[in-house]
Amino acid sequence: MTFISILLALLIEQLKPLRADNPVYGAIKNYAIRVEGWFNAGHVEHGRLGWLVVIASLTLPTVLIYWLCMRVSPFLALAWNVLILYLTLGFRHYSHYFTAVQFALNTGDTETARKLLAQWLRQDTSGMDAPELARLAVEKALITTHRHVFGVFFWFLMPFGPAGAVLYRVAEYLARAWSEPDHMKTEAFGRFAIRIYYWIDWVPARLTAAAFAIVGNFEDAIYAWRNFARRWQNETTGIILSAGGGAMGVRLGTPHENATSLLLTMDEATIDAAGVEAETLPGEEPTIRALQSTVGLVWRALLLWMLLLLLLSVAVWLG
Predict the structure, then answer these.
(1) CA–CA separation, 79 and 281 (whole Å)
(2) CA atoms of 81 and 91, how far apart (whole Å)
(3) What is the pLDDT of residues 218-254, one digit of tens each?
């Protein structure tokens, strides 16, 4: 049932992608804002309590409904799984931005690419040239794919099924929402959400990096992972981007005055604050071709996950 649920959810999303500004996401966003207003008194324990309230109020009903569906019919439980995965997966949520940036760069329309990337990143990209825009788009795509696809896969495979997918996506959102805008990053309220998400994402991030290495240039990916991942401020980001860049033979996270100031404000791509020299990083400077390489890497990694899941499902069925 697990493999079929994921396959159906991916197929439905390919046919009708769920918009990032859909009502379900909007309701959860408003709920998180309300909980923050109720509990935020400037202490870490208040953030912990608020996080538990949000997570419990969303995951427990998910488990209960799944249990009731199983009592009625396995097909009803399958439908519930597909619905939850459709809402938590985001393989096509932001693909239109990536595709539009890629098309603009391919046609030489750098100004349009800057505007599109600025909308996607919600940051200023003025003054950036084509290689910088390509690098930022690649980094954003890799991190977004991990958080909206592979991380959800891992937690959906856990014994609590759809509740695991909800747990991962909500925890990821709270880690961002309760540390924004900039003045919130120093507040104690959001520290627990950031820390607990780090541990929730610890295994999925490494599995994503391993998948990139397997379907790409394995030797360079492992070398970059081992030697350069720790140079990012955000360890998880460093693991995914170093392995992904090594797998494609592309140098990601190269410091530049404009790009560094931008990335340091991005939750998805915080780069080396110590200043890594560009020539010490493996791979070539990103070009427009790196965008197409990113698409291929992500699809191959997705197929690898699905193949392993299929083999696991067959083994369980035969056993």
Answers:
(1) 46
(2) 17
(3) 999 999 998 888 888 888 999 999 999 999 998 887 5
